[in-house]
Design brief:
Length: 466
């Protein structure tokens, strides 16, 4: 067990890097100051944290907030109001046009075998899917991979619904890797099926949980390929359909979905800023995404990232640790089905010739913090890694090179480092994009420890630069 109440033990660990006796004592002093200041940030977060109350507000008063929806608009106003309460130097909205896909009436699905016995399935449309324009009715062909689909004879696919049923690999400890590897089914399954003459796609939910909740998520149609409806089955539902097909491969599947894409809507990124006391032109961004899927409250995805980012600014204010470089919290709009907010933020930064030092994102849930993934050149990664000992007492010192985040991705090449807040990943995909991503799944302390660890690294970045 790690003792989180002994930050001073660190000072000695940093001395090895210092050369002369003077340098050693200077390093010891600044390291001691840093560990005390980081302790202050944690104390403020754990004793007087605001992120949990903010998350409750966002999740239970506004709830799901898909881009273009009235709830997304409410969330923008909510974010602005809450940031204004922190007493920042500047709070503003950054306009961005976003896609507007709507689910419509609850989807319906039913499998009927030769004996005429129907079984209902709990399904949800994948984000971006076309509707079924009434009832879609066809036989089903199950595949585990794109290669298997490609190898099927034409008559086995034509006029049918392709059922993609490859589970996320449970052997991976890093669940994000399993998600990434299974994701092709959801993202491009519909177009791959349509290319072979299929009239619809069913996709096993990208989840490691065995339950009855279908998980939505974005999908994309390939240009020039017929757009066929695509829906997700829960993991239990996928197992059940697979069993039914083994007993009766001629069963008929009926699918009814009313989803559609409407014209783009004007929306906003919400930005709050503390101006740097010494280097105001050097900017550190910390953010999460404000939009969520419509099925739940968007608690872990990504309400937690939003309230943690706002909390970073509040912690700096409340502790009186004035950042030497400018720190901006950004609540990005439209990560889920377009990344328009992230693209707009980078585009504006570029055209304004802003100098971005680093950008951090929290979008892996509000679970127990582990550390950070750093996307930068090797020398910069090493620079960030020298702060590892300062986060060690808080269990947040795994600093690895790796993917940082979707919304800050467009800043690559402009910011010296992209940094992804990294937390325990075991439960994230159980609830990700499903009706179960609700406020009650978030643990207060885990959320607060995450916000504090982000604030600690932002404090160090703002003090030392890169
Ligand atoms: Zn997310």
């Amino acid at each position: 067990m790690r003792n989180i109440f002994r930050p001073f033990a660190l000072a000695g660990m940093l001395l090895a890097a210092a050369g002369s006796a003077t340098a050693q004592s200077a390093a010891a002093t600044s390291s001691k100051t840093d560990s005390l200041n980081i302790r202050k940030l944690y104390d403020e977060a754990l004793l007087r944290g605001q992120s949990y109350a903010n998350l409750r507000d966002l999740c239970t008063r506004i709830g799901g907030r898909l881009s273009g929806s009235p709830q997304a608009e409410q969330a923008v106003q909510w974010g602005k109001t809450e940031m204004e309460k922190i007493g920042l130097d500047r709070v503003y909205l950054q306009e961005v046009m976003v896609p507007h896909w709507v689910r419509g009436a609850k989807e319906r699905a039913r499998a009927t075998g030769a004996k005429g016995k129907g079984i209902d399935f709990n399904v949800c449309a994948l984000g971006g899917s076309v509707g079924t324009n009434g009832k879609l009715k066809a036989q089903v062909v199950e595949v585990k991979s794109m290669a298997e689909l490609a190898a099927l004879p034409a008559d086995k696919v034509k006029g049918k619904i392709v059922f993609f049923n490859r589970p996320m690999n449970p052997a991976y400890v890093e669940t994000g890797r399993a998600y990434g590897e299974a994701g092709d089914q959801r993202r491009s399954g519909a177009s791959e099926a349509a290319k072979r003459g299929a009239i619809g796609a069913l996709v096993r939910s990208l989840s490691l949980a065995h339950d009855d909740y279908p998980h939505t998520g974005t999908m994309r149609y390939e240009d020039g390929v017929t757009q066929v409806p695509a829906a997700a089955l829960s993991t239990n539902g996928a197992d059940q359909l697979s069993q039914l097909l083994k007993a009766d491969s001629d069963l008929t599947f009926e699918l009814e979905m009313a989803c559609q894409t409407l014209p783009d809507v004007k929306s906003y990124n919400v930005v709050g800023e503390i101006r740097g006391s010494k280097y105001p032109d050097e900017i550190i961004t910390v953010g999460g995404h404000l939009d969520s899927w419509d099925l739940a409250q968007g608690a872990h995805d990504d309400g937690t990232g939003c309230v943690q980012s706002m909390e970073v600014l509040r912690l700096l204010k409340a502790t009186g640790l004035k950042p030497e470089r400018t720190v901006r919290a950004v609540l990005f709009m439209n990560e889920e089905n377009g990344v328009r907010g992230g693209n707009k933020y980078a585009e504006v930064a570029k055209s304004a010739n802003e100098k971005h030092l680093a950008a951090m994102e929290s979008d892996g849930g509000g679970f127990t913090p582990r550390g950070f993934n750093i996307e930068a050149d090797a020398a910069t990664v090493r620079k960030v890694q020298r702060w590892q000992p300062l986060l060690q007492p808080y269990g947040s010192a795994e600093f690895n090179a790796g993917h940082a985040g979707t919304d800050i991705g467009p800043l690559k090449g402009q910011a010296k480092a992209l940094i992804g807040f990294d937390c325990d990943s075991q439960r994230y995909f159980d609830i990700h994009h499903a009706a179960t991503d609700t406020f009650d799944k978030v643990n207060r302390r885990e959320l607060e420890l995450g916000g504090a660890s982000m604030a600690a690294l932002v404090y160090l970045l703002s003090k030392y630069g890169l």
